[in-house]
Write a structure and sequence with these properties.
2 helices, single chain, 2 strands
C-alpha cells in the first residue's frame, strides 16, 4: 500500500479547517457529502 502512495496511485483526501472554525468543521462530515479525513489546524 505504501508503494501505491509513493507512486501517486492512492491520494489521501484530507480537508483542513482552522481551529476557529471547529463548529463548521464538525458539521462538514454530517452533511454526508464527504470522503477522506478532517484535520483541525491550531491557529
Amino acid at each position: 500500500m505504501f508503494q501505491l502512495l509513493i507512486d501517486g496511485v492512492l491520494r489521501p483526501q484530507v480537508t483542513t479547517f482552522p481551529l476557529s472554525d471547529a463548529f463548521d468543521a464538525h458539521r462538514w462530515p454530517e452533511a454526508g457529502e464527504t470522503t477522506g479525513k478532517l484535520v483541525l489546524i491550531i491557529d
